[in-house]
Amino acid sequence: MNLRKYLKVYKKFLHTSLASELEYKANILVDLITAIFSLIGSIFLLSIFFKNNGYIGGWKFEQALIIQGIYTILNGITNTWFNPNLTEIVKHIREGTLDFVLLKPIDSQFFISLKKINPSGFLEIMLGFFLLFFCIRINQINLNLTFLTLFLITISCSICILYSLWFFISTTTIWFVKTWNAIEVLRSFLYIGRFPLNSFSFSLRIFFSVFIPIAFITTIPSEVFLGFSVFWKILLEIVVATIFLINSRKFWLFALRFYSSASS
Amino acid sequence: MVQNIIDVRNLSKSFDISSKEPGLKGTIKHFFRRQTKSLKVIKDISFKIKEGEIVGFLGANGAGKTTILKMLCGLIYPSEGSVLVSGYLPFRRKENFLKNITLIMGQKQQLIWDLPPIESFYLNASIYDLDKFEAKKRIKKLSEMLEIDEELFIPVRKLSLGQRMKSELLAALIHEPNILFLDEPTLGLDINAQRNLRKFLQKYNKETNATICLTSHYMKDITSLCKRVICVQEGAISYDGKLDLLLKKLSPLKEILIVCRSEEDAIKLENYGFNVKNKIKNEITLKIENNSITSSLKTILNNFDIEDLFINEPPIDEIIGKVLIKKDYDI
Questions:
Q1: Whether complex ipTM tops 0.90
Q2: Global pTM?
């Protein structure tokens, strides 16, 4: 793979999609306002849950805010990259314009996963980081290199798992053509990621760890953040992320064999 | 000796097609138990195309022309047989193969809708690993050939269909491919835009010796660009050869309307032994075989007092239409 060429192409992707999005100023403004109100609403909802008891699944409100912060960052990443690109796959397949992607001398997964960008998602990412900095203060967390490295590793793994889940569902469009509902179901599952894994029953914990690893996505990075994560959990998240990423790639290449292109 | 750039042998393609009965009952049945059957859309076809040739694929809707093009450019895996394009197996989509070909579809677009075409050109240039200087040079050259200038800087959504198609062509040709697959490139364009596009393709073929495979329902595209045509009927090739030979085969007779000076001359001509279509007063219409037109006209002019005469060529659309409509037409 020619890394220089891929960087150059990605720079062009950034440029063209930002230019496209900036054509519609009002839309960006609405998205930005939605992101702010959505975060305020989520924190308010979380505070209601903690009002009576003070603890959910062994987590204090101040600690649960870390999960909310990580969730907001991941949701921002979803809205910036995954949502605009991976929902476009459905359009590409339905309208047959995937033909143009497949006939370009560039990796098709790279092309369809990164071509578009929604700049309003950046605000959510920034809001998530602000919330995390706030949590560092209220939870009196000591920042050090090990902490930062582990946090970066686990959050990167979370992004990989999340991407793979989205990509896997979008790829099934090649057979089923319309899989929009499945993506909506996945989004609803992701909302669950705003709460600590321990707050669910045992069977749900198994479901959200083994079948749809939502638990890994937010809980493990949050535990790392608070300094009470165990090594095997971090290792497990790395393994799960690697398996998901490799399989999403294999699944895409396998699915392309069945692509019949839309009729003209 | 000119080399074969496309070599297709015993190529077949089958698709699984699901069918649905009409009405609510049929819809429910279709939802729970979808019945699919395998349909062979391309049946054991073989042909070769030489470098620099322009070949037109003719056939009715659903005959399989686009499926053939898509197998040639590697979008669809063949079910049986072999395809070799420029020495590559197309469906493997190797980088060097993809750098050599392009696909242009009249009904689909790759340009970024909200941005001027120039942005899409530079994006494609980076995908084909062209530096900025080279890209600029090629855009300038192609835009001159296509006669587009200001349109390059206007958002695609504000361009006319003709301007958009020209921009699509430029985007698809920026990497200077050797093989062009064109699927109804003039679809929906007005007469002038169609003519300009054909002129460009002729020029491009002449200057670069690129091979062009073209499907179109506009016969003018085929007649002005292609010397060779491949007729596809229900997934099989029914004719592969020169276009003028096909036309002669399909329309061996020409109609000649002769206006005689008097009705007596017209009666004399009617009884002379020609194949007469009809006679109205002093006007008589004869059907004469293509290869005996000159001798027949000589005879008529020498023996009869003629006021005027008209040779009617049957419209090419009508002739080709015979191939497209009548499925078992023998060519």
A1: no
A2: 0.81
